[in-house]
Amino acid sequence: MDTSSLDGNATAGALGDLFAFDVTIALTTCATCHDRRAVAELRAYLEAPGIVLRCASCGAVQLRLVRSSERAWLDLRGIQVLETRATSS
Amino acid sequence: MPIVSRGFQGRRRQPGAGLVPPGQYVVDDFPVLTAGPTPVTALEDWDFTVVDDSGAVAARWTWDEFRSLPAEDVTVDIHCVTKWSKLGTRWEGVSLDTLLEGVDTAAEFVVAFSDGGYTTNLPLEDVLNGQAWVAFGFDGEELEPEHGGPARLLVPHLYFWKSAKWVRGVRLSDEDEPGFWESVGYHNYGDPWREQRYWGD
Amino acid sequence: MRWLVATVAETVPETPGAVTLRLDVPDWPGHRAGQHVDVRLTAEDGYSAQRSYSIASPPGADRLELTVERIDDGEVSPYLTTVADVSDQFELRGPIGGWFVWDGDDPTPVLLVAGGSGVVPLMAILRHHVASESTAAMQLVYSARTLGDVIYRKELEALTGPHRAVFLTLTRESSPDWAGHQGRVDSALLAEVGWPPSVRSHCYVCGPTPFVESVADALVGLGHEPGRVKTERFGPTGG
């Protein structure tokens, strides 16, 4: 167990700039082990040259975010599927 | 006592030593950046491998074998893409020239790989000729786990994300394969003097 | 989400290690209990540092309140707890975080478990419970090192009532004034003081990461549904 990390709650500010919905309450299915849980509960590493979210179960990288002052790059390959509430129709 | 020739610095002097690259500021502490939990590998389980471009293990050292190789003390400046620079850092390590000696290859690139899954890519010529080490000592002590111990790559002429912590080997490759950060926005080469932080810089 | 300017209206020492900042933030859009803000400090040379802090005030309060615990070798908390004074300004953005929130429209019982400064967002939830006159049964289990480290102590004593209970446990030195519980929050304590899993209570756990991991595991081990246990980790030591 890694006790030094934060969780996805701490990424809500940074990810809030990119997503039109609150991604921290969305559920991800890990592409590696298929664990399913809220982004808020993933293991977050913010002290990196970017933000990394790892599966709380197997530790695989689910999300990587790099930001410069002008651009952002987002890799979500570690997420098999992201599930969020339907927005109003 | 050998005669010291005034002004001679030798080719190992780091270009720009003591100067601060554009956009950087100097720190006294040593910030810890990580993309994941600190790996724990017992020294009896540790090895360093050189994998050639066919995928075969061209060379391998256990910890004891690695520590029996000739090592050097180097003093270099390091520059992190998050803008801090630390000048005059002292390391002890084995040169990649030593580790790659006798490895016959036409490959142009290397991918350094680490415990925990981190990777970073470099041109082979950037890790030769006194430009790169596998470092096991920092500031006169054993390299601490949070800073990459038992051993990390040290490539001070590039941004420090290229100096992979917890390194376990290098893989030679004909193709350039962007590593952990290079594949998601960070510059493929990463020269701090040209401020190559992100794609397209 | 844009950066807003916060002006310090009042500083309130809570404990030797924690200070509440009462802030005026024009254009504050409102928030939900449990959310946080990002605070950004910028030095004259342009260097800036950013940290997240939980909002201590409930929705609808006059001023936005943050309770900050000072981390000795921290970069932002020493400024906020020892330097920042009335009329000083800094930037903040928010509210942030839709996961660790309680809105008060649900009558389901609630268990709040706080380790150290993890009590801050849970206090926003308790204050919201008070302000909205909620009758959802709410229980706080709060673990602090010593009596002197208990943030909001008097207010916590005052807010207990038919629908709100507070259970305090101290983990370090025993105080002569303290006749209450001593020891860590473990399964036995949670089974005794918390809700039985059959109640299907919402559980909120906040504090240093090791505390949160241990309490969340204990709750799930006691039979609470993992989906009903919400956690917010403050890092290795909290604050």
General description of the model:
- The complex is a heterotrimer of chains A (89), B (201) and C (239).
- By secondary structure, chain A is mainly beta.
- Chain A has one helix at residues 12-16, and strands at 6-7, 27-30, 36-38, 43-45, 51-54, 61-67, 72-75, 79-83.
- Chain A is built from one helix and eight strands; from the N terminus they run E-H-E-E-E-E-E-E-E.
- Chain A has a five-stranded antiparallel beta sheet with strand order 1-4-5-6-7, with no helix packed on it. A three-stranded antiparallel beta sheet of chain A has the order 3-2-8, with no helix packed on it.
- Chain B has 201 residues and is mainly beta.
- Chain C is an alpha/beta fold and 239 residues long.
- Chain C has two domains: 4-96, Translation factors (Elongation Factor Tu (Ef-tu), domain 3), CATH 2.40.30.10; 110-233, Rossmann fold (3-Layer(aba) Sandwich).
- Chain C contains five helices and twelve strands.
- In chain C, strand 7 (110-115), helix 2 (119-131) and strand 8 form a beta-alpha-beta unit.
- The model of chain C has no long low-confidence stretch (mean pLDDT 94).
- At the A-C interface, strand 1 and helix 1 of A face strand 6, helix 5 and strand 12 of C.
Helices and strands in order, then pairings?
The complex is a heterotrimer of chains A (89), B (201) and C (239).
Chain A lengths: L5 E2 L4 H5 L10 E4 L5 E3 L4 E3 L5 E4 L6 E7 L4 E4 L3 E5 L6
Antiparallel strand pairs in A: 1-4, 2-3, 2-8, 4-5, 5-6, 6-7
Chain B lengths: L24 E2 L20 E5 L5 E6 H6 L3 E8 L4 E12 H5 L8 E6 L4 E5 L9 E6 L2 E2 L9 E3 L12 E7 L28
Parallel strand pairs in B: 1-5, 2-11
Antiparallel strand pairs in B: 2-3, 4-5, 5-8, 6-7, 6-11, 8-9, 8-10
Chain C lengths: L3 E12 L2 E7 L11 E7 L5 E7 L9 E6 L7 H7 L5 E8 L13 E6 L3 H13 L6 E7 L8 H7 L4 E7 L10 E2 L4 H7 L8 E6 L1 H14 L6 E5 L6
